[in-house]
Amino acid sequence: MAIANLCMATLLGARWIEAGYFPLSNLYESLFFLAWGITTVHLIAENTSRSRLVGVATAPVAMGITAFATLTLPSEMQKAEPLVPALKSNWLMMHVSVMMLSYSALMVGSLLAIAFLVVTKGQDIQLQGSSFGAGGYRSNGYRLHKAGELVTEPDVNSIADNNGYGRYKGSNNNGNGSSAVLNIVAADTQAVTASTLSPQRLSLAETLDNISYRVIGLGFPLLTIGIIAGAVWANEAWGSYWSWDPKETWALITWLVFTAYLHSRITRGWQGRRPAILAASGFVVVWICYLGVNLLGKGLHSYGWFF
């Protein structure tokens, strides 16, 4: 993935030098920038989490984007053309690049949320603990329970006799005082009302949920900054901060979807399936905002498409 990232950066840099402007003036360039952004976010997430699971979701999407740009778009669209007057502004780099990076981060986070839903088979898994996961407390014998699962807990005084199985409540690793609760039960003392996922799947699900949350937390501020920069640019160019252009409208919808996601995680304390469904819907919304509205061929952002 690092090699792919370097190759795309070299391609974009060469076009920048050749054309004399930042390579984000048409669909071909923006697709490659999007793919480069996805690989960049992948490398950041992989290095931060020390997990190679990110590539399972990001590699096929990055490959598909570059293949679409190279094999599907006509050769005329792949050439660097002089900028249209509306794009001859320093805001091009500020607004468009930040928006594309936000799309990259939000797509990666949403893809990991979709992977979470696949791993958990759509079941309502209750991940108890801080927003960053409670993986540091879990070892052999620890199990995260599904919502609605009935658990018979041993007496606290018998924890030592049961090899440490019991219920633990305490402060989490980040020192913010919030509780991290783990239900830890012995096999011969538990009673469940439904079938459980394997410990491997539960551990994988927790990792995906954690990384997805962090990556979306990175993409959301970028989206906010990009929208604000676009509004300032629009006011300088056309005398209005907001004109309800289709792209602007869908950018606002995208912002609201991920606002709801972060609100559910931070304020409501949701984890698991419900925020993952929100993030998965955000994946579709981001693609509509980036590519879908251009099919209309209307508005200030309609340049650079097939028409």
From TrEMBL:
Q: How does it sit in the membrane?
A: Multi-pass membrane protein
In its keyword annotation, does this UniProt entry include Cytoplasm?
A: no
The Cytochrome c assembly protein domain extends over: 24-301
Q: Which Pfam families match?
A: Cytochrom_C_asm (PF01578)
Mind telling me which GO cellular component terms the entry cites? plasma membrane-derived thylakoid membrane
Q: What does this protein do?
A: Required during biogenesis of c-type cytochromes (cytochrome c6 and cytochrome f) at the step of heme attachment.
Protein name (record): Cytochrome c biogenesis protein CcsA
Species of provenance: Dulcicalothrix desertica PCC 7102
